Amino acid sequence: NLERSEKQSMVEPLRPSDTSPKTGEEYLGQQSTYPSAYGSSPNLGEQFAATVNSQLEYSYLGQIGKAIQPALAPLGFDWKASVALVTGVTAKEIVVSTLGVLYSADEDDAASLSEKLLSVTDENGDPLYNVAVAISLMLFVLIYLPCIGTLATIKSETGSWWWAVFVAVYTIALAWVVSFVVYQSIIHNVWQEVIVGGILILVLFYIVMRIVRKFRRNDSDTPCSSCSASGCHGCPYK
User: Fold this and answer.
1) pTM of full prediction above 0.85
2) pLDDT at 38
3) Torsion on CA atoms 32, 36, 42, 44, rounded to nearest 10
């Protein structure tokens, strides 16, 4: 009997004193008071996300993103967006998939990624993916080189890697300039002036090209091979 009473005294403190039915909120409130190796009120989801984020940040791909991020910082991109642009070289749709992986979103749910991006903040607590960054990122993805397959096709058609390299450098540079102008004009609230200036430049370019074409036509005294007694057919100076 003595041994039985000792065993019972060891078990009884582990039994809950209140065995009455509890609601879900009451049960969760009671469980949160139990000690844990992670603290008094652990949030395992946040700890797991932080661990995964740290592993991604210090991976090879993360280091590449951090290396090129200073060049893309004037466009409003962080290292994760930089990584997405690197992987997007294989195919542009990979940009969205990469962002989903980096932000631990459900890759089958577009709304999940949108919510993740909207919840990301910078060191000042401001939203990282605001309107300026979103437009800048979409323009960059739209303009920069389509994919590696396109470069291979260009090399195959032209017979030289020079044109493939030229297209890659040209499209990336053009994408950087366009995204830079758009992002900086939006954050400095001068986008209206930039739009008006862009329209004026296009109009001026059109006028100059019309004048140059007119002078080339007037200065041509030698008829081309398409000209005949009946008139010009397909003449470039017509």
Assistant:
1) no
2) 44
3) -120
